[in-house]
Amino acid sequence: MLLMFYVGKIKEYKYTPGERFEVTPEMKNEFDRDGFILVRGLFTKEEIDKLYKGLQLGNIIKHAFNLPDGEKMNSKMVVWNHPGNDYTGRLGRCRRLVDTTEKLLGGEVYHYHTKVNMKEPHTGGAFQWHQDYGYWYKNALLFPDLLSVMVAIHRSDKGNGCLKVLRGSHKLGRIDHIRMGGQNGAEPERLAEAKKILEEIYVELDPGDGIFFHCNVLHSSAQNHSDRKRWVIIPCYNKMDNDPYADHHHARATKLHKVEDEDLIKCNEFDDLTGKWFMDPSIDKTIIASKVNENVDSSEEAPVNNA
């Protein structure tokens, strides 16, 4: 069962654990209009606690890298391209995410990649205003038929650098992006004009809350100057009929084997990372990154994407 209610100007949905998650025509219309839908309690406290426990073991986090924000702070990130059979892989394959994504995008999808973004207390860097398709366009994707699902692991609010989105900005189409630190950011003049007419929303999330957002939605987040962590997990999906026309550093169309929602909490596999294909940032020419505890010169000229 899915309940809908309002808080301020943001329409929210509430997921009821144990019941099938259904995308209503209203939800689909909202996604098409605004570029996102916000779901409270998408994952239970027990499910998120188990996820965090698995991440703390370090087998996944050891693949993390630093992403400079151009303002002297870094966020840590780890990215894997195939879901795998561990707990994080079950999360990325559960019907709660995949079925919903397929209804919102209008067709079969595959797992493009999942990332964990980690903003540590007092040091976690910002993410510049950008569209995900501003990066992914360079990965030989012809159509913007992708979305991401950001799920909070810790409380995410204005104090520790929560997500911000421009409502309806996916309708702008792909905007040119330029280098900003180790990242790509939306072209400033066009961004400034878009912000004059589109509503900027702070997406504050409790652990387990999730937001599904289109790959052309402009979004950003501020630095974390608080004494609290802000970790999120973000599975990303692409439509099967949007297979890239060339190989690159993310997955090409690969059949996604869904798991039932109730199977997630039953999974106790945290060590088997077989087949996940962790991304090496040195081969991703859309960013400039470094290994954790390794410095990077964020003023370095960006290499040309060769995906």
UniProtKB/TrEMBL annotation:
It comes from the Eukaryota. Pfam families: PhyH. Its cofactor is Fe cation. This is Phytanoyl-CoA dioxygenase family protein.
